[in-house]
């Protein structure tokens, strides 16, 4: 039902169309986040996030995508993007853990050999239909094929029954567990889970 593709410069238009806050479905029911464009985890915490508006975030992400510096996976249904998973090697997400207010988990390999999954965004009409699980499965296979050694996830400690998209945008602990991730750290707001790929 859903087709998943790696984000490439050629798919940048699809990505932007999904996130464009005036027309795209990404944050249709969460307007407070509509200016993000998934730029948040790329911004050093020394910079005030509130100073970045939608136009600035769109411009920054356009440049990252065009340069091949933004990685992740897009889910399609009927030719339209309905989901996004931000999964990148740690060296491309240097500020993500600081933005989550945790230290970076210890890595047994260089940062470019380990990946982090920091965001899932699913269009409201396609939630709870397996889009995130489909992207996760595809992403794990792709990261393994590319030779990465491990991947970490950061599910929030929120109720599985919550309908608030902000409670699940890191993915759920149960989804990661079903995919073979195991907890390696517990923090006040989230759990760090890890899956070894090789």
N- to C-terminal separation?
29 Å
Number of strands: 7
Spatial extent as radius of gyration: 16 Å
Averaging pLDDT over every residue, what do you get?
Answer: 94
Query: Uncertain regions: pLDDT < 50 for 5+ in a row?
Result: none
Q: CATH homologous superfamily name?
A: Gcn5-related N-acetyltransferase (GNAT)
Helix share, percent:
10-25%
CATH topology-level name: Aminopeptidase
Label the overall shape. globular
How many domains comprise the coordinates? 1
Reported for the largest beta sheet, the result is: 7 strands, mixed
Count of alpha/pi helices: 5
Sum this structure up briefly.
The protein is of the alpha+beta class. The chain has helices at residues 12-19, 54-66, 96-99, 131-145, 173-178, and strands spanning 3-6, 73-77, 80-89, 114-122, 150-153, 182-186, 191-196. A seven-stranded mixed β-sheet has the order 1-2-3-4-5-7-6, sandwiched between helices.
Search tags:
5 helices, seven-stranded mixed β-sheet, alpha+beta, 198 residues, Aminopeptidase, single chain
Show the helix and strand layout.
Blueprint: E1 3-6, H1 12-19, H2 54-66, E2 73-77, E3 80-89, H3 96-99, E4 114-122, H4 131-145, E5 150-153, H5 173-178, E6 182-186, E7 191-196
Parallel strand pairs: 4-5
Antiparallel strand pairs: 1-2, 2-3, 3-4, 5-7, 6-7
Task: Please characterize this protein's 3D structure.
With 198 residues, this protein is α+β, with helices and mostly antiparallel strands. The chain has a single domain (3-196), classed as Gcn5-related N-acetyltransferase (GNAT) (Aminopeptidase). It is 23% helix and 22% strand. The protein contains five helices and seven strands. The chain has a seven-stranded mixed β-sheet with strand order 1-2-3-4-5-7-6, sandwiched between helices. The mean pLDDT is 94.
């Amino acid at each position: 039902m859903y087709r998943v593709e790696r984000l490439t410069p050629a798919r940048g238009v699809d990505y932007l169309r999904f996130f464009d806050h005036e027309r795209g479905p990404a944050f249709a029911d969460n307007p407070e986040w509509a200016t993000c464009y998934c730029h948040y985890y790329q911004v050093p915490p020394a910079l005030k996030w509130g100073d970045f508006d939608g136009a600035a975030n769109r411009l920054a992400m356009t440049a990252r995508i065009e340069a091949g510096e933004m990685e992740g996976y897009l889910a399609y249904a009927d030719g339209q993007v309905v989901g996004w998973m931000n999964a990148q090697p740690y060296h491309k997400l240097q500020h993500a853990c600081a933005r989550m207010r945790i230290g970076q988990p210890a890595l047994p390999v260089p940062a470019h050999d380990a990946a982090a999954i920091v965001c899932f965004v699913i269009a409201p009409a396609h939630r709870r239909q397996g889009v995130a699980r489909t992207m996760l499965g595809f992403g794990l296979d792709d990261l393994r094929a590319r030779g990465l050694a491990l991947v970490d996830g950061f599910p929030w400690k929120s109720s599985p029954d919550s309908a608030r998209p902000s409670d699940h945008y890191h993915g759920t602990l149960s989804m990661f567990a079903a995919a073979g991730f195991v907890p390696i750290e517990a923090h006040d707001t989230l759990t760090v889970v890890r899956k070894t790929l090789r």
